Amino acid sequence: MAVETQAKSEQKRRYTSKGARPKPANQFELYSWYFFRVSGILLIIFALGHLVIMHLLNNVDVIDYQFVANRWANPLWRTYDLILLFLALLHGLNGARVLIYDYVSARGWRMFALSTLYAVGIFFILIGSQVIITFNPVVQVK
Amino acid sequence: MYRGQFGMWLWILHRLTGVGILGFLFLHIADTYLVGLGPIFYEDLVFLYKIPPFRIIEVLLVGAVLFHASNGLRIILLDFWESAIKYHKQLFYFTLVLFLALWLPAAIIMLSSVKWT
Asked: For residues B92 and B89, what is the distance between their CA atoms, to the nearest angstrom?
């Protein structure tokens, strides 16, 4: 058949995972892919650590205003929580963005969904950071 | 009909647990924000989290996080270790075992601290 006798130069280039090949101009998705893996590993430390502290070493019964005031009296714990906030929110929001890309194809709905996501995301980053940074206890720290 | 195997289910569960955790995270940031409004507001809400039905939901949430983390590790191994694909099935068992080995003790510890009456 004619297809099989095509000259080699006309055959479609095959790319392997190791060879050089055209790369997209916008590297955003690449960085997003790396971010998932890097933040995922970091979250294993920060998020699982958070769960161990709150639910295994303590438990929900002892968590009250005093507990938070004592914990956030130490700037290291505030920093920990701030890092956890950013890692978890960005990891999760990026995931939600991927889901929207996968499941929302209609242009109008996609615009709406992405806008809502960014707005909600920015909002929660702001209020989360604000309380961690500016919290000033009204009780004596024990 | 497409009959996907365990890999597909793991992918679906990874997405579901991810969305679930994100939803919880929004709630959690909002409730922690109340700490800035004083003990009365904060403790009124946190009081809800201490009642038995919520403690059970909490155990499920920890399960979701641990599953998402275990499967995430499997994904990272598959992405960065070229031969990992040969051990696809073993990795699945490893993920399951890791998840249960972390979740079951945690669930027991968490549920034993609940005052059930």
From this structure: 5
Give the pLDDT confidence score for residue A82 in this predicted structure. 98
User: How confident is the model at residue B57, as a pLDDT?
Assistant: 95
Return the CATH number at A110.
Answer: 1.20.1300.10
> Are the Cβ atoms of A43 and B35 closer than 8 angstroms?
no
Q: Which of residues 105-124 of A touch B (CB under 8 A)?
A: 120, 124
Q: Which of B64, B65, B58 is nearest to B114 (CA)?
A: B58
Chain B residue with minimum CA distance to A38: B76
Evaluate if residue A54 carries a pLDDT over 90: yes
Q: How many CA atoms does the CB half-sphere of A104 hold within 13 Å?
A: 16
Tell me how many helices (H) and strands (E) chain B has: 4, 0
Q: In chain B, what are the domains?
A: 6-112 (1.20.1300)
